[in-house]
Amino acid sequence: MVLINSRIRLRDITRRHAQAGHTAWPGPGAFHAAAGGAVLGHRLPPSPLWLGGYHSRIWAPSFRPGVARARRYRSLRREQQARATRARIVAAAARRFLARGYAGTTMRAVAADAGVALPTVELVFGTKARLLKAVIDVAIAGDDEPVPMLDRQWAARARSAAGAAGFAAACAGQLAESAQRAAGLTLVALETARVDTGIAAVAAQLMAQRQVMAAWMADGLLRRAPRRAGVDYATAVDTVWALMDPALFCRLTGDRGWSPARFQDWFADALLRLLLPGTGQQPATASQSPEGHITSIQPELWVDRAAQAVAFY
Prior knowledge:
By secondary structure, the chain is mostly helical.
């Protein structure tokens, strides 16, 4: 109660001080005279900054009659230079990770390749694990804009597709484009996480993002067409999740000699054939899963909410 009364008294003092035409913060003498002695048992009242930061956060900045606040300095040129430096570091790191793997890549080597000092790399990214995650994110998106994948133009085109075939084609096109840049880097993180706990958190985040994306694709398909008989919603998500495996893209385009365009067509066709009824097949008509459990025929809508939580960085 004493502290509350002291705050009220200090507020009254500063208000009267401003009304008197003073532009500076009232000194100890003004507080002492107005308080009639001690505040909180002190011979002189405590500084407004001492009271838990209360006055420093609320009253002190606003109590400057006639004094303009300092504007925050911002240099577009410096921002562009910082962004260019970050891009050089990311590009150099991507080459290193693909050529040497995670264990064989050092922050010092990345700095040398990017033409910057080691402290610069550490200041921007902190750790090698965070550097790899940033490299993968840029590779997936194709740029360094801090925009979630599901808020980008390709996702808007997919949402605007009227039929399941158009939706599958839009998803396949983006997956093939991103996989050309990011599949190898993602494998570096996933394979390293098995033996290096330092990268485990990054691998877990990548897996979580893949889960959300697979659920978003399955939800979009099943909103536009009925499910194939014997395929429940969970199975549909698992199917898309498996088809999105970066190892599958690397094996088909690397070991088997597929072109990215062929993979794109195959992925879109696989979505339609595995999740939707084929010619002459009956769609799922009962809300019963293959295991006999009763489930809703409507795709789960939590996907739309979860997708918004996926951060680009």
